[in-house]
Amino acid sequence: MTQSRLFCDIGNTHFYFCDGEGTYKVKADGFDLSTVRSDVYYISVNDYWERKLADEENWINLRTMVDFEKYYESMGIDRIACCEAVEDALIIDAGSAITVDKVKNGHHLGGYIYPGFNAMAKCFKDISPRLEVSFNFDIDLATMPKNTRDALSYGAISPLISQIREDSDTKVVIITGGDAERLLPFIPRALIDHELVFKGMKKILEGKA
């Protein structure tokens, strides 16, 4: 990416920027748009900021450049950007939600969504205070659990990993998102790419150049 282009992935709590030198993030709450004067190519899953940026001439919404015939209208733009970055891969985005998408020969074949690990932990806590424990990401999924913490961990992790293993018939498996490192031990042949969404955003822009 050249220094003259600034990309931004807007989430619910942060603005994630990528320039010619690297990536950084700033809190969305109270962010001052006047601090950015260069052109910004962005995607957003935050409805408030997407509405606010609609009248900002230097903020260009990449969603308007997406060919939705390849996807579906309600598909998250962050998922689309990740899919645009690859030709043949199973993509796992482990964030607030965990999304899994399959791309073959540049075509999106479909995908599915799981709750993120924090959301699942909150769900267990809401069922009973006794179920408020941290997940054990060192758990052996080949062994049935014999304590509450491992039982909850198994229930949260095993169905997801089983489905991913069933679907991982592509040449490459890529994990991105904040919990990528937690998932990697369960999918040894996977690669971690925390800049995957920005690579996809660049390709979307280049496709309209």
Structure summary:
The protein is of the alpha/beta class. It has helices at residues 47-53, 77-84, 117-127, 148-167, 180-183, 196-207; strands at residues 6-10, 14-18, 23-27, 40-44, 59-61, 89-94, 97-104, 107-115, 173-176, 191-192.
Write the layout of secondary structure elements.
Elements: E1 6-10, E2 14-18, E3 23-27, E4 40-44, H1 47-53, E5 59-61, H2 77-84, E6 89-94, E7 97-104, E8 107-115, H3 117-127, H4 148-167, E9 173-176, H5 180-183, E10 191-192, H6 196-207
Parallel strand pairs: 1-4, 4-5, 6-9, 9-10
Antiparallel strand pairs: 1-2, 2-3, 6-7, 7-8
Question: Could you explain the architecture of this structure?
Answer:
By secondary structure, the chain is α/β, with parallel strands linked by helices. The chain has six helices and ten strands; from the N terminus they run E-E-E-E-H-E-H-E-E-E-H-H-E-H-E-H. The chain has helices at residues 47-53, 77-84, 117-127, 148-167, 180-183, 196-207, and strands spanning 6-10, 14-18, 23-27, 40-44, 59-61, 89-94, 97-104, 107-115, 173-176, 191-192. A five-stranded mixed β-sheet has the order 3-2-1-4-5, with helices on both faces. Strands 8-7-6-9-10 form a five-stranded mixed β-sheet, sandwiched between helices. A hairpin with a 4-residue loop joins strand 2 (14-18) and strand 3. Helix 2 crosses helix 6 (196-207). It starts with 5 loop residues before the first strand and ends with a helix. 30% of the residues are buried.
The fraction of residues in strands falls at 15-25%
Would you count the extended β strands for me? 10
Q: In which range does the helix fraction lie?
A: 25-40%
Radius of gyration: 19 Å
Largest sheet: 5 strands, mixed
Mean pLDDT: 93
Number of helical segments? 6
Output the strand order for the largest sheet: 3-2-1-4-5
Q: Which ranges are low-confidence, i.e. pLDDT below 50, for 5 or more consecutive residues?
A: none
Structural class: alpha/beta
State the end-to-end distance. 14 Å
The secondary-structure element order is: EEEEHEHEEEHHEHEH
Tell me the overall shape.
Answer: globular
